[in-house]
Amino acid sequence: MSEYLAGPGRHADPQRPADEREHVRFGIPFNGVVPIWHDDATITWHRPTDGTDLATVLGMGLVETEPGPTQAPDGWAEHVETGTLTEGGRVLLLRAATPTGRRAINDPGEGAPVVLDEPLGFQEAMEGDFDIVGFGIHIGRIMLRAARDGGIVVFTLRAPRDPEPHHLLSMPASSDEEGVMSFHLGTLLEMEGGAWDAARHSEGMAMLDLTVPYTDLVADFGQEGEEGLDADRVLEMAQPAVQCLLKPGFPFALGASILLPED
To answer: Which tens digit of pLDDT belongs to each residue from 131-175?
Structure first.
């Protein structure tokens, strides 16, 4: 596990020119920490200093993407979220998704700046109790986004110094006209317990199908009948995916991308 260390202060170097820019990708946020995947195959872990919760931004289809390394089926393309580090690695610039389509966000500037704290080692990032509830809700939101857009989520694990992540779990998702969502989980891990006891097995892969009506996730809040998502129900929906992702034991090195149909 020590191989995950990228070296103290690696991205807060006072000798680095303030205007130098570095292209980065992202891992899955946890415990208020965002893993930043660098092009030299190292990872650093950071907390925003302004209280920004990047779990509400990353993985939601809001951030600019680039083509990913996964070999996609014909008519599909993998989208991997990217950002830019500047100011000696202390400021992360996030540009909005390309301003086309009905769900796009128009962002003509260089991107929204997020000020980062000094880089952490993975031991520091994992200090204290792991926020399984926050992590599970984030995975649930990724699933909802995939069902909304008819995408295939690809969850991965980044090994130390490996230039490309390794597949953990793939999940085609869709939603019909009545708001009934379908998720098809597939993994090469040996899964058992919980919902995975109902999985099918073929050629070394465990496959689990989930059907979730969106209305089952909705709860009423307040006296005016305001609606929102029920956290417990979202966690229940995401539990099989969370169980799979946490099985290897490296929640600080997980990533996600999405395959979408090409226009």
So the answer is: 999 999 999 999 999 999 999 999 999 887 777 789 999 999 999
Is the sign of the CA dihedral 134, 140, 144, 146 positive or negative? positive
Beta strands in the chain (DSSP E): 22-26, 34-38, 43-46, 65-67, 76-86, 91-94, 112-115, 152-157, 166-175, 180-187, 200-202, 205-213, 218-221, 226-229, 254-261
Report the distance separating Cα 82 and Cα 26, nearest Å. 7
101-118 confidence digits (pLDDT tens):
444 444 556 778 999 999
Structure tokens at 115: 């000020």
3-state secondary structure of 45: strand
Which amino acid, 47?
R
pTM, whole model, 2 decimals? 0.88
Q: How many CA atoms within 13 Å lie on the side-chain side of 132?
A: 12
For the chain, report the end-to-end CA distance as a whole number of angstroms. 41
